[in-house]
Design goal:
Layout lengths: L11 E5 L5 E4 L4 E4 L18 E4 L17 E4 L3 E5 L2 E9 L10 E9 L2 E5 L9 H7 L4 E5 L8 H11 L3 E5 L13 H5 L7 E5 L1 E4 L9 E5 L2
Parallel strand pairs: 3-4, 4-5, 9-10, 10-11, 11-14, 12-14
Antiparallel strand pairs: 1-2, 1-13, 2-3, 6-7, 7-8, 8-9
C-alpha cells in the first residue's frame, strides 16, 4: 500500500492533537485520524486542515470530522482495501470489547503507507484480534495504540499484543491527560512496561523518514 506516484524525499510530519487524534502530512496529502471536538472531552480541539479524515468508529470522541478544516473526504469505519485521494488504505475489522462488539460495537484499525513508512492506527482496540489481522501488522513501522485500559485492552493484553506485533515504533494514545473528562488510566502505567532507554519524548510533532528509524525499538511519547 502506498501513494500513487514516486516518493519525493520530503519527511512525513506526525502531529498529535490529543486523545487518539493524529495528523500525518507530507508534500502531497494530509490525513487526520479520529478527531474529537475538544470540549466534549475536556481538552483543546484539534487545529488542523486535511485532505482525508479517517474515523475508526462512530463514538463522539473519535468522529468529529466537522472540526477539521479543508475540503476533506471522510471515511467512517471502512473495512477492506480502498483508495482515497491517491492514498491506499486497508481497514482491518476488530472489536471495541471482548464480546464481539456486543458491548461497544466494532472498531476499524487503519493501515496505510506514507513516505515508505507503514503505519497502523488501532482506534479503540478492545481485544487482541485473530491471526488473520495480526499477520497484516506484524513488524509495522509505526503503531498508534490505546493504552488507557478503560474501554480498550487492559495492560496485560496490551503487552501481549505488542509482543506479538513487534512494531518498530510504539505511539501510545487514549490515556489520561490534563483536563480529559474520560476516566482512563495514566500514561505512566503503560510506560512501566517499556525500558526507560526506549522512551523518546518527541513533543507535539515529529518529522520522520525511513532512514531515521534505527535498529532500536522505540516508544514515542507525544505531548499535545
Amino acid at each position: 500500500m502506498a501513494y500513487i506516484g514516486v516518493a519525493d524525499g520530503v519527511p512525513m510530519r506526525i502531529v498529535r492533537h490529543g486523545h487518539s487524534c493524529f495528523e500525518f502530512a507530507d508534500s502531497r496529502l494530509t490525513v487526520v485520524i479520529d478527531p474529537h471536538d475538544g470540549k466534549s472531552i475536556g481538552i483543546k480541539p484539534p487545529v488542523a486542515s486535511a485532505d482525508v479524515v479517517l474515523m475508526t468508529h462512530g463514538h463522539y470522541d473519535h468522529n468529529a470530522s466537522r472540526v477539521i478544516r479543508g475540503d476533506h473526504e471522510d471515511v467512517m469505519a471502512r473495512n477492506g482495501k480502498f483508495e482515497v485521494k491517491g492514498l491506499e488504505v486497508e481497514g482491518l475489522p476488530t472489536f471495541h470489547d471482548h464480546s464481539n462488539g456486543e458491548e461497544r460495537g466494532p472498531n476499524t484499525m487503519y493501515v496505510f503507507e506514507m513516505d515508505d513508512l507503514r503505519i497502523c492506527h488501532c482506534g479503540d482496540l478492545g481485544c487482541i484480534p485473530g491471526e488473520e489481522i495480526l499477520s497484516k501488522i506484524r513488524g509495522i513501522d509505526i503503531l498508534m495504540l490505546p493504552v488507557g485500559e478503560v474501554f480498550t485492552m487492559p495492560l496485560p493484553e496490551v503487552r501481549e499484543f505488542l509482543e506479538t506485533v513487534n512494531p518498530h515504533i510504539i505511539v501510545p494514545m487514549h490515556y489520561r491527560e490534563g483536563g480529559l473528562s474520560i476516566p482512563l488510566t495514566p500514561l505512566d502505567d503503560f510506560l512501566e512496561m517499556i525500558p526507560e532507554e526506549a522512551v523518546d519524548y518527541v513533543g507535539e510533532e515529529i518529522d520522520v523518514m525511513p532512514e531515521d528509524l534505527t535498529d532500536m525499538k522505540e516508544c514515542w511519547v507525544f505531548s499535545s
